[in-house]
Automatic annotation (TrEMBL):
PROSITE patterns: WD_REPEATS_2, WD_REPEATS_REGION. SUPFAM superfamilies: Nucleoporin domain. InterPro entries: WD40/YVTN_repeat-like_dom_sf, WD40_rpt, WD_repeat_multifunction. PANTHER family: ANGIO-ASSOCIATED MIGRATORY CELL PROTEIN (PTHR19857:SF8), MITOCHONDRIAL DIVISION PROTEIN 1-RELATED (PTHR19857). This is Uncharacterized protein. Keywords: Repeat, WD repeat. WD repeats lie at residues 20-61, 115-142. It holds the Pfam family WD40.
């Protein structure tokens, strides 16, 4: 929130487990890893921190610039983030090994790892969607909205049956 912190509670009894402190701006992105071992927090200025939940301690941090979104891989301790410069970042946690996927020169506004765990779908402010190969780091497809329906994308959702929906100024459904 605006206090530059995030909080982790146990939902079964409402007990506050710990505070995620040390951010430089309002915390706008939070999420647990697939197995709840880690929680990631990110602020508006692009300062991302990862905390080991059981130990209640920060284990990793990185600064990327203006942060748009974060997303954990559904099967591995891998964190992805999109930034206002159009890049999508991917880190192995806790080692911090990093790959960067360079998008168009506009904000990467939303992202979602496909259920196969091998690709990420990233939506951009220019209304395009790029599907990236996580291992190779290359763009597999660039999808554009229908003419006359262009605008920034605000949400990407992917399901196990290989359908993805994009929401924003562009509306279409893809099958992958």
């Amino acid at each position: 929130g605006e206090d530059d912190k995030a909080f982790v509670w146990r939902v079964s009894d409402g007990e506050l487990l710990f505070e995620c402190t040390g951010h430089k701006d309002s915390v706008t992105c939070v999420g647990f890893s697939y197995d709840s071992t880690f929680v990631a927090t990110g602020d508006m200025g692009g300062f991302i921190k990862v905390w080991r939940v059981a130990a209640k301690e920060e284990i990793w941090s990185f600064e990327v610039g203006d942060l748009e979104w974060t997303e954990w891989h559904p099967q591995f301790p891998v964190l992805l983030a999109g930034t206002a410069d159009g890049n999508c970042w991917m880190w192995k946690i806790p080692s911090g090994e990093c790959k960067t996927f360079q998008g168009p020169n506009c904000p990467a506004t939303c992202g979602c790892v496909l259920p196969d765990g091998r690709r990420v779908v990233v939506g951009y402010e220019d209304g395009t969607v790029r599907i990236w190969d996580l291992k190779q780091g290359n763009s597999l497809h660039v999808l554009k909205g229908n003419e006359g329906h262009q605008g920034p994308l605000t949400c990407v959702a992917c399901q196990a049956d290989k359908f993805c929906n994009w929401k924003g100024g562009v509306r279409f459904q893809g099958r992958g």
